[in-house]
Amino acid sequence: MSPTRTTPFKIAVSDDSLNQLKAKLDLATFPDELDDVDWDYGTPLKDVRRLVDRWRNGYDWREHEAKLNAELPQFTRDIEVEGHGTLNVHYVHQESSNEKAIPLFFIEVRKILPLLTRGSEGPNFHVVAVGLPGFGFSEAPKKKGFSVPQHAEVGHKLMLSLGYNEYVTQGGDWGTLITRHIASEYGGKACKAWHTNIPIGSPPHPVYQPLSYLRYALTPYKPHEKAGLERSAMFALKGYGYFAIQSTRPQTLGYGLADSPIALLAWIYEKLVAWTDDYPWEDDEVLTWVSIYLFSRPGPTASTRIYYEAVQKQHFGDNPLPKLPTGFSYFPQDIVRNPISWTLGARHVVYQKEHDKGGHFAAHERPDDLVGDLREMFGKKGPCFGVVPGKDGY
């Protein structure tokens, strides 16, 4: 891939956008609510009122914008995607001071960046975290069909353009599917190993996995594995509505998310609470998260379309694991929590670790745990030590 120009980037939301937000909050219309329903019907009115009041009267976007710019070394770069032209992609790139550090393509990065790039307790990493096209400050695709393989192509080409011809990956949420595809499509020559905190497996099959099936049949599930299966079943029953609409009619939903900051707040806040493990969300923390969606380069509607594209292209299927060293971290309150026994003995799964706390956003909720797993997996005593030739991690 021919090199393209890197442009330093700072978040700079316009005053007009901030004034428009305040005007809309001042004109807020709230729905009614039944008595004593708590979270059963969705985001509670009392929480939304509290957050809106803070957004209107106390929250200072400029303060948080400055903190983001100070903490994250940000850049943009044009990436050509087959069939979709050139997209201007926003990313964070921080090299470790250790020249032997391992190049790591990552998805969620703010809390975890300083932990990955320095420290004496194991390997350090050169970190590249991409803003997926359609999210944050990356340009959105303009044509149909921009699904998981195209996001993987962006990530892979970004790593090559930065001089990382060999690298490893980590991802959660959409990053799980994207880094999995990177491992499948670009594994071996460029991508050397991958790790995810959302290990999705299928129950062992009596014909295709007879030994695993026998072990599964003879060994009762442990209490935490039963709890994980129950949580997965409950999510499928009561937590899947957002997925259904975003994967079928994202544009219809998009009018509400783009026009109403309160609709966007309620839509996102529900997931932040429901998908985490009693994480103590601070109001300003929530409002910064939501504001990034609101002030994103293409607007919040663009971020919903990946669901439609992935379902249309059937990129949620139970594909075989990539033939590449694979690491899994299990957090008990994730939205899908399969038993570790489903992947025990899988040929390419070289690292698995179960944690007793944490949910879907592990890099935000439990950054120390996630970094510890990566250091175990890629450290001197780990199964992936030396997978990037010439990089010993110390």
TrEMBL record:
<feature type="active site" description="Nucleophile">
    <location>
        <position position="173"/>
    </location>
</feature>
<comment type="similarity">
    <text>Belongs to the peptidase S33 family.</text>
</comment>
<feature type="active site" description="Proton donor">
    <location>
        <position position="307"/>
    </location>
</feature>
<dbReference type="GO" id="GO:0004301">
    <property type="term" value="F:epoxide hydrolase activity"/>
</dbReference>
<keyword id="KW-0378">Hydrolase</keyword>
<dbReference type="Pfam" id="PF06441">
    <property type="entry name" value="EHN"/>
</dbReference>
<feature type="active site" description="Proton acceptor">
    <location>
        <position position="360"/>
    </location>
</feature>
<keyword id="KW-0058">Aromatic hydrocarbons catabolism</keyword>
<dbReference type="GO" id="GO:0097176">
    <property type="term" value="P:epoxide metabolic process"/>
</dbReference>
<dbReference type="InterPro" id="IPR000073">
    <property type="entry name" value="AB_hydrolase_1"/>
</dbReference>
<protein>
    <recommendedName>
        <fullName>Epoxide hydrolase</fullName>
    </recommendedName>
</protein>
<feature type="domain" description="AB hydrolase-1">
    <location>
        <begin position="112"/>
        <end position="195"/>
    </location>
</feature>
<dbReference type="InterPro" id="IPR010497">
    <property type="entry name" value="Epoxide_hydro_N"/>
</dbReference>
<dbReference type="InterPro" id="IPR029058">
    <property type="entry name" value="AB_hydrolase_fold"/>
</dbReference>
<dbReference type="InterPro" id="IPR000639">
    <property type="entry name" value="Epox_hydrolase-like"/>
</dbReference>
<dbReference type="Pfam" id="PF00561">
    <property type="entry name" value="Abhydrolase_1"/>
</dbReference>
<feature type="domain" description="Epoxide hydrolase N-terminal">
    <location>
        <begin position="7"/>
        <end position="107"/>
    </location>
</feature>
<dbReference type="InterPro" id="IPR016292">
    <property type="entry name" value="Epoxide_hydrolase"/>
</dbReference>
